[in-house]
Amino acid sequence: MKKFKNITISIPEEKYEFAFAVLMDFTILGIREDYDKLIVTFDDEIWNENVKTELLMALQSIHMDVFIEKEELIFSKNWNEEFEKNVPLIKVSDRISIAPEWKKHESESELTIVINPKMSFGTGQHETTRLISRLMEKYVQEGQFWIDAGTGTGVLAILAIKLGAKSCFAFDNHTWSTENAIENVALNKVQDYVEVQQIDIDEFELPKADGIAANLYANMIIGNAGKFAQALSLGAPLIVSGILVYDKDDLIKSVEKNGFKLIEYIQEAEWVSIAFERV
User: pLDDT tens digits for 251-261?
Assistant: First the structure.
């Protein structure tokens, strides 16, 4: 029977984006987020002391206090069962739920987004996805064209269409994200309305849009606020998430300097999602 190793890594949530980049240099089978932890799955034949040392050195270059909490040997049947058990149906709002395919029948929501996550993120388990989805429910209007910046599983692009947008351009700079997003877009039968591309935002000029949803870390949003402004007409919304509460004020000031004004923000635990208007 096939064997795997689940490696539990202790690392602050604000360092996840950098950790994901490091992990892409390793042969991994999956990543699951927990609070200040990443659970990374390796083939047991690949995981060894050399890989462990190399991984720790790379992660500690990001954050010195990173360490491996646990190494757990699991078998293929147990892995599949554990994975499915740990991806629950999430009720985002009164209208919206996010569910893996094997739990979609449990949803009673008007809008159910079916997500089969692989190594990308956006299952609704994290506050950032739930928060930005709630703001999109408020600001996406029928017939609009939206951009989903940093699409991950494709959940926000799919949501935009289900909320009435006529089309959405979704992009990410990771192959595993765009592949998963394309699969989920098809799973939700919105492939005629969503275009998914693998693109680095720093090397790409965004098309003109009626709204942008960007679930990214604060430094990415601040660094690309001017680019977001160029893509939006006056009065159009920019909705951002992935923002820790103690970064909120600095981010708002930076984004407002690039042609936006704050409309509102909502908070869950230590995370916030913010809606701006192009001015």
Answer: 999 999 999 99
